[in-house]
Write a structure and sequence with these properties.
The complex is a heterodimer of chains A (660) and B (283).
Chain A (H helix, E strand, L loop, with lengths): L5 H9 L2 H7 L16 E7 L4 H9 L4 H9 L1 E5 L7 H10 L3 H4 L5 E4 L4 E4 L2 E4 L4 E4 L2 E4 L4 E4 L6 H7 L4 E4 L13 E3 L14 E5 L12 E5 L6 E10 L8 E10 L5 E6 L2 E6 L2 E2 L3 E8 L2 E7 L1 E5 L5 E4 L3 E2 L9 E2 L1 H11 L11 H5 L5 H24 L4 E7 L1 H9 L12 H7 L2 H19 L4 E6 L5 E7 L1 H7 L27 E3 L4 E4 L14 H16 L10 E6 H4 L11 E5 L2 E4 L13 E3 L6 E2 L9 E5 L10 H11 L15
Parallel strand pairs in A: 1-24, 1-25, 9-10, 9-24, 11-12, 26-31
Antiparallel strand pairs in A: 2-34, 3-4, 5-8, 6-7, 10-23, 11-21, 13-14, 14-15, 15-16, 17-20, 18-19, 19-22, 20-21, 25-34, 26-32, 26-33, 27-28, 28-30, 29-30
Chain B lengths: L1 H16 L7 H23 L2 H20 L4 H44 L1 E2 L6 E8 L10 E3 L5 E3 L4 E3 L4 E8 L3 E9 L2 E9 L10 E3 L3 H6 L12 E6 L2 E2 L3 E2 L2 E2 L8 H18 L7
Antiparallel strand pairs in B: 1-11, 2-6, 2-10, 3-7, 4-6, 5-6, 7-8, 9-10, 12-13
Helix pairs in contact in B: 2-4, 2-6, 3-4
Classes of the chains: A alpha+beta (660), B alpha+beta (283).
């Protein structure tokens, strides 16, 4: 197996995007939706909203509209998915099944033939047939980008019954499932490089990214005669031999005294003061004379002197000229762009990696997420105003992102707790809940007696204080063997693993796989009773492992996949799904196959709140303006509920039951 | 002298477009294309050898017919092709004179039309860059240039001085509708530059104000020039290029040619051909 580093993994993953310009699917530009429905459904999907925090601030009278809705109808915790990761949870909601029915088990899956991680939600392939002319490679067919979620989404079923739906940014819907309904993809939508978001940072300061976190590129630059010259790297140029990265050159002119700079590239020219964000800027990466890839990004001039520091956001797909499929019909993203101008199209737009790498500070990150939130709120007003029939689903990501990054300011036990910063940013999470209360107020003004209003989240939140190196635990427990033990902790992607003597390994945030003969390339465990016994043994030991520092149990539940999943894709599932306890999560190193030295470590990162735990630790929220009959509703129960409201028969593959 | 000519010539266009300022720019474009087509026909009619053009066109047609009739005879085909080439060259020579007569007025027209169709006025809230370009030998760090506050604009940044380009830049944000005067004090001398905010659909926009100099003034006749002894070479306001929208489709730039120019040439030529019969002009 060749050595492939993290950066190459990202490049390999999805970077064939440039080829797709030639073969993007011919989506209709007509919006669907003819039937006037007597009943309507309005769903607010507030990612990561936590029932305990909601309850607390409702009791304190800080969230009057949530209070009013709970009084009018009902408020219950919502059972989340196993594991409670957003792509898995939202797929449960979209399809009314569990991962056995939709085949999304984790953010990251693995290719057992190569022991190599793959993105779970989508797969991009370049043109199958190409012709080479000198140094050029010309595609004879279009590339393909495929949504890996199986099962039918509820808006596709509504379409079968001529019921209009608008589904705004639901996660795990990239590329959008084939439909005539109005949908735009959310979490899982890549940036223009085909990754989950690579920022660029140009500085005269010596700086490196944190190896485990990545997510960006640091470019050392020099200020010569008050001028900086640099390159902004674009997608891989699949039209050229050796697939070089495309790039554009840009110049920055800084004033010798004033803290101000002018940035100039292509036909763009703009001036920023120190500490200012630019508006969206369009960039064109020329691949061959007739083909270019368009993207949009924002610039942030962090500092002019003493060190020059310029941040450029991940390059988002331009919604006005999308090179990858991000909406159905194709014209929907163009319509939004025409009305609102360019907007964030990358799945999770707030740049948590830049904050974790100290490229942006807390305040700067919040400023960026405010840009995201403002866009979302403006578009919500637009969609709400024209919602008159069928279903509207509207998703907000800021609730999730801010809890991930600012939990350390409400948790005094967190290793990253800083009292001074807590004083400044301690209200950040509360504030975003209040913003959502205002959003709910608008929704409640709109709903009439025939509209079912549902406010839901995919999971709640918990502190992430200690990180558990699952692969290290496997190694220490004798289930995983290294080729060169002294190299432990130095290599990603199991480059130091002796597979013939390894029984189990972990890729992804909650997934554990047995190194099974006939499935894995160098399997060591026989399928059948031997594997069964091993799975139960590992699950038992995991649940009983104690954190040497705290005495707590890092793993609350180790689920055996075939016990908890139903559906045609159970065989593709990880063998064990690890449900972490309150305060614990998988480490930063484990998901991409690195074996650290310690089994449990403090999490000192800014990413301090999380939800990749056992589902009972972090239920989501469910509020409706109707009384809920179900005692313990789950995400997959909402799907049949929607169908029942519109009088549609519930497909038998759905595992959920209506809640009303 | 040049400025007087520019003022008079500019006023002609102000007059032509006066009634159409509040209408869709396409109406103004069609009007000016009709006038241009008429001008071209007029010039062709009175400066070209009309009889000669008619004769060579007939000759070309005859030899094209010969080519079709005698396609089996290689010698006749070659001879016909040679004749077609010969008469084409003669046709070009007959057209040269009117083209030469047209070229200077057409350049002057294009310069004026660029003010009307080339740029989009700023809208309140929109940001732009204002550039003061200095003459050679002047360093932006040494020169005393101040931009006075204006009710029409917020000055959003301190001056950004770029030595290598001999430029001083500011970022402005448009505040109020109207044509505003930006006032600069350069080494004690007051200079102004006009900036247009949220004008009518068809409005005259001058992005560049230049120093007194024949060529400069010829190419940038929108505003009265600076005195010849000014250390300032030009003052520029960055406007966005204007779109020509045809039933929802923005006509794209073609090999660096702006949309309005593509439309203008296409319409003028089409209208010239449509109107040539009425005015009995042979082109």
């Amino acid at each position: 197996m060749n050595h492939i580093d993290r950066r190459e993994f990202i490049k390999l993953g999805l970077a064939a995007g440039s080829l797709l310009t030639l073969g993007s699917p011919g989506l209709t530009t007509k919006a669907f939706g003819k039937r006037e429905t007597p009943q309507k459904v309005l769903i607010l999907g507030l990612d990561g909203m936590d029932p305990r925090l909601l309850q607390l601030w409702m009791k304190e009278g800080k969230l009057p509209y949530f209070q009013r809705l709970a009084r009018q109808g009902d408020f219950l915790p919502l059972r989340t998915s196993i594991p409670p990761q957003s792509p898995v949870a939202w797929s449960n909601f979209a399809t009314g099944t569990n991962p056995g029915g939709h085949a999304i088990f984790d953010f990251i899956h693995r290719d057992p033939e190569r022991y190599f991680p793959v993105f779970s939600a989508s797969e991009t392939t370049g043109a199958k047939k190409t012709v080479r002319v000198g140094k050029l490679i010309l595609p004879l067919s279009g590339g393909e980008v495929k949504n890996m979620r199986k099962g039918r989404a509820f808006w596709q079923i509504l379409e079968d019954h001529d019921i209009p739906a608008t589904v705004f940014k639901i996660p795990a819907n990239y590329p959008p499932s084939s439909t005539k309904q109005r949908t735009i993809s959310g979490m899982g939508t890549p940036d223009i490089l085909g990754s989950y978001g690579i920022f660029n940072y140009y500085t005269t300061e010596a700086k490196e990214l944190k190896e485990d976190i990545g997510g960006g590129r640091i470019h050392p630059v020099n200020v010569i005669a008050n001028r900086v010259e640099a390159k902004l790297l674009g997608p891989v140029n699949a039209f050229k031999k050796d697939r070089p990265e495309s790039a554009i050159e840009f110049k920055v002119f800084v004033d010798p005294v004033n803290p101000v700079a002018k940035i100039s590239f292509q036909d763009n020219e703009f001036i920023l003061k120190e500490g200012e964000w630019s508006s969206w800027k369009r960039i064109h990466f020329r691949m061959i004379p007739t083909q270019s890839v368009n993207g949009i990004c924002v610039f942030y001039l962090k500092q002019v002197r003493p060190n020059f520091k310029l941040y450029i956001s991940p390059i988002n797909i331009d919604p006005g000229r999308a090179v990858l499929p991000i909406s159905t019909p194709k014209g929907y993203s163009e319509e939004l762009e025409k009305r609102f101008g360019p907007f964030f199209t990358k799945g999770l737009p707030a740049d948590t990696k830049a904050l974790d790498n100290d490229v942006l500070d807390d305040g700067e990150f919040l400023e960026q997420d405010d840009l995201v939130l403002r866009e979302r709120l403006e578009m919500f007003d637009y969609e709400l105003a024209r919602f008159s029939s069928g279903l509207l689903f509207y998703y907000v990501s800021s609730t999730d992102q801010r809890q991930h990054m600012f939990w350390r300011f409400i948790d005094k036990e967190h290793p990253s707790y800083d009292p001074a910063l807590a004083k400044k940013y301690g209200n950040t999470i509360e504030n975003i809940y209040k913003e959502m209360d205002k959003l709910l107020a608008k929704a409640m003004e709109k709903v009439d007696k025939d509209t079912v209003l549902i406010v839901m989240s995919d999971h709640g939140f918990s502190p992430f204080r200690r990180s558990f190196n699952l692969n290290t635990w496997l190694k220490e427990s004798g289930y995983h063997t290294l080729i060169t033990p002294w190299k432990q902790g130095r290599e990603d992607l199991f480059m130091n693993t002796n597979w013939s003597r390894t029984k189990a390994y972990s890729f992804g945030l909650n997934s554990l796989y047995i190194n099974q003969k006939g499935r894995e390339a160098e399997g060591a465990v026989n399928p059948g009773p031997e594997k069964e016994a091993l799975v139960r043994e590992i699950a038992y030991k995991l649940e009983n492992f104690r954190d040497p520092k705290t005495g707590g149990r890092p793993v609350l539940r180790a689920f055996v996949a075939k016990d908890v999943y139903q559906g045609p894709y159970v065989e593709e599932a990880p063998d064990i799904i690890v449900g972490y306890n309150h305060g614990y999560r998988t480490s930063w190193a484990a998901p991409l196959g690195r074996i650290s030295k310690e089994i449990v470590e403090d999490n000192t990162e800014k990413w301090s709140g999380d939800h990749c735990m056992a589902p009972e630790v972090i239920p989501g929220i469910l509020l409706t303006n109707r009384k809920i009959k179900a005692k313990s509703p789950a995400l997959y129960d909402l799907t049949p509920t929607i169908l029942k409201i519109f009088g549609i028969e519930i497909p038998k593959e759905m595992v959920g039951k209506p809640i009303f | 002298m040049m400025w007087i000519f520019n003022s008079v010539f500019g006023k002609i266009f102000d007059f032509i477009f006066f009634l159409f300022r509040n209408m869709n720019p396409w109406i103004g474009m069609i009007l000016i294309s009709v006038l241009t087509a008429l001008l071209m026909l007029f010039v062709f009619r009175f400066t070209s050898n009309q009889e000669g053009i008619k004769r060579v066109k007939n000759k070309i047609k005859a030899h094209l017919l010969e080519l079709r009739l005698f396609k089996d005879s290689m010698s006749l085909s070659f001879k016909a092709q040679g004749n077609i080439l010969r008469y084409n060259l003669r046709y070009i020579s007959y057209s040269t004179k009117p083209m030469l007569v047209m070229i200077i007025p057409l350049i002057l027209i294009l310069i004026q039309l660029n003010f009307w169709f080339g740029y989009e006025a700023l809208t309140p809230g929109q940001e732009t860059i204002l550039k003061v370009k200095l003459e050679e030998g002047h360093n932006p760090l040494d020169i005393d240039v101040a931009l006075e506050p204006s009710s029409g604009f917020d000055i959003q940044t301190p001056p950004l001085r770029i030595e290598e380009g001999r430029e001083i830049n500011w970022r402005l944000q448009a505040r109020e509708k109207g044509v505003h005067d930006l006032t600069f004090i350069v080494n004690g001398q007051r200079l102004t530059k006009k900036v247009a905010v949220a004008q009518r659909p068809l409005s005259k926009i001058s992005p560049l104000k230049v120093k007194r100099n024949f060529i400069n003034e010829l190419i940038n006749p929108g505003e009265s020039p600076f005195p010849a002894d000014s250390p300032i070479k030009a003052i520029e306001v960055k406007y966005q290029a204007k779109n020509m929208n045809l039933f929802g489709w923005n006509i794209p730039w073609l090999l660096g040619i702006p949309p309005w120019l593509i439309v203008y040439f296409a319409l003028s030529i089409i209208l010239g051909f449509v109107l040539k019969g009425i005015f009995k002009v042979e082109i």
